[in-house]
Amino acid sequence: MTFQQAVKSCFSKYVTFSGRASRSEYWYWVLFATLGSLVALIVDGVLGFGTSGVSPISSIFSLAITLPGIAVGARRMHDMDRTAWWLLLTLTGIGAIVLLIWFCYRGTEGSNRFGPTAA
Questions:
Q1: Angle ∠(99,101,105) on CA atoms, nearest 5
Q2: What does DSSP assign to residue 112?
Q3: Number of domains composing the chain
Q4: N or C end of the chain: which has fewer CB within 10 A?
Q5: Rounded average pLDDT over 59-68
Q6: Helix, strand, coil percentages, rounded to 5, for the chain
Q7: CA separation for the pair 60, 86 (Å, rounded)
Q8: Residue 39: how many other CB atoms lie within 10 Å
Q9: How large a percentage of the chain has pLDDT more than 70?
Q10: Would residue 115 count as lying in a domain?
């Protein structure tokens, strides 16, 4: 899956928590979110919002990508045959590291209880 396909897929499945997401789809989404956040911060700074502590562009961008980010994370967990409830590990410090490692693993081959192999 290419960068553009991944971003398009994540936005088209905005709040779809069922199914599976490949590693490339998830990591391209993370790259998009990171680059988009940096651009939003730069735009906020250019517009003079950086010194006031108010970041409207960054806030709007963050709100726009929150749900698709959680959804692609849930689908990524499904690809590894784990429930999306494991995403709650991010609420702990060590759990975020565990999830980072899991997100690097290859998904299960063939179909699993969450559906056919991710494209």
A1: 110
A2: B
A3: 1
A4: C
A5: 95
A6: 65, 0, 35
A7: 27
A8: 13
A9: 97
A10: no
Q: Which residues contact 100 (CB under 8 A, 6 or more apart)?
A: none
> What's the whole-number mean pLDDT along residues 20-33?
95
Mean pLDDT computed over every residue of the chain: 91
Domain annotation covers residue 60: yes
Residue 16 in any domain: the answer is yes
**What would the two tokens of residue 118 be?**
């991710």
pLDDT tens per residue, range 42-63: 999 888 876 777 789 999 999 9
Widest CA span in the chain: 52
Q: What residue numbers bound the domain in which 93 lies?
A: 3-104
Q: How far is it, in rounded angstroms, from Cα 50 to Cα 57?
A: 11
- The answer for residues whose C-beta is within 8 angstroms of residue 26's C-beta and 6 or more apart is 6, 72, 73, 75, 76, 103
